[in-house]
Amino acid sequence: MTPDQDPRSESTASLFTSALNHISGLLRKEVDLARAEVNENLRSAAGGLGLIVGAIVFVLVSLNVLAGALVAWIAELGMHPGVAALLVGIAGLVVAFVLHRSGRAKLKLSSIAPSRTAENVQRDVNVIKEAGNV
User: Which residue ranges does UniProt annotate as crossing the membrane (predicted)?
Assistant: First the structure.
């Protein structure tokens, strides 16, 4: 410190630098937390995607069974083998529908967003605002 400098301005500058360093560190940690939370939510979304793939497999199998049922029904016109295949095909479609709905529910954007981090950031902003009002 030179004789021309006011000692109070030096401590204010050092306090300001310290506050900026703390805010910078806090923001870095919040970004890291948001990244971790998004990664966790994306893993959950991957499970939803797996269910949708399962639904697609069941749709393909069901369409195959339904096509076989239609062929059997037309070929025989006795309806017994065709009706049985038709019931199996409809049951497959019901399973596919349930899997698809479950998978789609897991893929909603609101379930992927880092909500805990957003709450933490909002809380930090409120603390900083309150500290500025003191």
Answer: 49-75, 81-99
